[in-house]
Design a protein that fits this description.
Elements: E1 6-7, E2 10-11, E3 13-14, H1 15-40, H2 46-65, E4 72-73, H3 75-94, H4 108-117, H5 120-137, H6 149-231, H7 238-259, H8 261-267, E5 275-277, H9 278-292, E6 298-302, E7 310-312, H10 315-331, E8 336-342, E9 346-353, H11 360-365, H12 380-391, E10 395-399, E11 406-413, E12 421-422
Parallel strand pairs: 6-8
Antiparallel strand pairs: 1-2, 3-4, 5-7, 7-12, 8-9, 9-11, 10-11
Helix pairs in contact: 1-2, 1-6, 2-3, 3-4, 3-5, 4-5, 4-6, 6-7, 8-10, 10-12
Length: 423
Amino acid sequence: MITLPIDDGNLLLDQRRTIILRWWLLAAATLAVSSAPTLLGLVLPLPPMLAVLLALAGFNAWLQWRPSRREAVSGGELFGQLCVDLTALAVLLYLSGGAANPLISLLLIPVAVAALSLPGRLTAVVTVLAVVIYTALTGLYLPLAVDDVERAARLHLAGMWLTFVVSAAMIAWFVARMTASIRQRDRDLAAAREQALRDERVVALGGMAAGAAHELGTPLATIAVLVGELERDTTLDVDARVDLALVREQVALCKGIISGMAQRSGATRPEALQAQDAPGWARGVVARWQAMRPQASATVVVAGQGVPPMLAFDPALEQAVGNLLNNAANASPGAIIVTLDWDASRLRLAIRDHGPGFGADVLRLGGRQPMPAHQGGAGIGLLLSFAAVERSGGSITLENPADGGALARVELPLASRGGASGT
């Protein structure tokens, strides 16, 4: 894919297109030079002309297979290549009639490439160089020996037709590829801007969460003290003590969530994470989620074959899966099925409920921007889930199965820069 970002003042361009275009130009010139003596009866200085073509072919081959070859070339380097092309064409035209050669219009191809690829000042230099070469060839050239004037005119017209066909084909190909690349660049930039906006929202939510966690520490400690005092009250009946035990358990869970926010915000380095098998991690995530949602029901189904992968999971992934489970529980009173699968390269987690399914807005915008919470869930938690999974190199796909309900698929690479890494 061609890229056009600015880097140190230079426009980065895809070099492959210029190399391919140069090969086509070399093929056309070689065919014309080698066939002219036989088909057209022209006497050409073949040794020097073929030497120029061979040198240009060697230059292009070096560009294509050099050890330090890059996919992108700076504007200055491409400018130098176009100057080499113009110089080679000037020598070939000098040896074959100069400005009277109908192939002189091939000088327009480097100018077209420069106009599409280079900054204005470099394009102007290439254009001036082409004009200077054309002007010089009107007086400096080796004439073609053609005795029949009528035949010379026919050859000139045929050469002009050939030049037009070659130039039109090459320029159309190059412009079409450049246009497609620019459109792809625009799509990539739009996606990058959307990702940046989503990251800004996530960072803002993270700051709000950190502030809320700091403020919740004191009331949770007060609740824990009050629960402890009430449990020492000997006049309470059994039901009240069961309720107090549940409150104490929920307070402990809240404290655990608050203490783990630093980890979920990405403070934990990947090398500090402990590896665990994927089924054990999935069952642990679901068990801890059910402790906070005792009224909900979720079943883990391990569908993967062979030895389960050992992974070091980013703590933020547990929060992402928990948000998806919350959405499923809010939408469906029935059991939630969590299916775990894997292959050689990816780990897949599917969360299926039997509720009304995702709304059209959720399927279209879910994970891209915050959405208001509603009865079926998929509000702000979905945005956080997408951010956490994508930061780990994975992806989330939402769909409504044909037999009803909603399905959220989470895919994670078994080796990545972030959240889950194979061991």
